[in-house]
Amino acid sequence: MSTSTIYYFENGLRKVKPYYFTYKTHVKSRWIGKTVHEVFTTELGQDSDVTKQEITNKIIYISSNQGMKGGPIEIKGWNNLVERKIQSHDLIYNMKHIHEPSVAQGLELVKKTTKYTSQSSTDLSIVFENDEVLVVDKPAGIPTHPKGNYRYNSITEIVKHDLNLENIWPCHRLDKVTSGILILGTTQEGGRKYLNIINNNRDRISKQYVARVMGEFPKDEFAMNCPIFLVNTSGGYIMPSNSRNIPTNSTTIFKRLQYNQELNQSIVLCKPVTGRMHQIRIHLRNAGHPIVNDYEYNPQNNSTKQHIQRLRNQIELEMYENIYLDFPSFQEHKSHNLVHDETEVDIVKASKFGTAEIQEKVNKLVVLRSEMVKDMKDQYNKTCDICNRPLFDSDINVDEEGIWLHAFRYEYSDIEPDSSFCFETAFPLWCNI
What we know:
Number of helices: 9
Largest sheet: 10 strands, mixed
Number of domains: 2
CATH architecture of the largest domain: 2-Layer Sandwich
Distance between the termini: 46 Å
Helix content: 10-25%
Number of strands: 23
């Protein structure tokens, strides 16, 4: 389908017409020894009957022997895959009729001043552009690049569509829920140049975020140095997958900018020295000052989804308390960062994740999430006429798609001043407290 016809706007949302797409997924180490049906149902949360039907219809299949002599070999059909265990050299194919989630339309649709011949109005805020790079102020609630159920409703695909570009190369990433500076290469050479700068000059790169958090944040600047992990609610395992040897040097520097006593909320400057998954959000939660509207790390309402997140946070905080017993420095406010510390920690062992007490809570979490997904299917009680997949309400709650965390500055200081750069946005309106 042409991207010129795939988007439509409704109820203040950018929506995508359903389409077909074939996913090719490399095997993760924890999948080895499991069946395809088991992975799709227990780890990816797909309905068991739908998964069996798609394996039977050869929509889901395995290409084995990848990169080996005599390969690849396609293995298709339920009878061939029902008991066949996944191996390290497998590639999993999955053709899907995609129903993408909606994303917020964002700003008013306008024609932007840009050298590119825009084929449509756009709600993207362009911070900077030259012959190599395009810098945008990413709205909260939109993923950086295609991932999971999002493809066309990602920043890279929206930029390609709105500015009529054939390709785009993201030079780094921002979490879906985070807004702010995002650097995109408009040529492969430009993308590679900025990617190399970012990856190979860690000591000269400065990223600055602003967050609105709960409580009266400490006045003095401090560094938090603590390993980052989370518990996956679908499969009940620790993320990231290298949980036996997680780096201990995950470091964020914090400084309070403002405090509102009536709201009992603070505006905080956050400078991540490393860039682990959800690092700022987890460090703020662990410090006792979670982001005000962070529905994953500071769940507030009484919905089932928020109840599950509350239980997950309780489990993770209990695991961190166990870790602090062996590594008390992880909860200290330091006057300097320890990014050059190359030590690692076995999170499974230190957090006592394998104990019966914690495993009982994790198993309860997984069951509750599975029941929530089933209840959602029963609530909407709609299936696609083409692919027979359950359909959910695509009119999202925009307030739950983004959080008060904004990347307002991305700076590189080179020995040669002409090679340096600094991209910056204004603070969001939610900073006015």
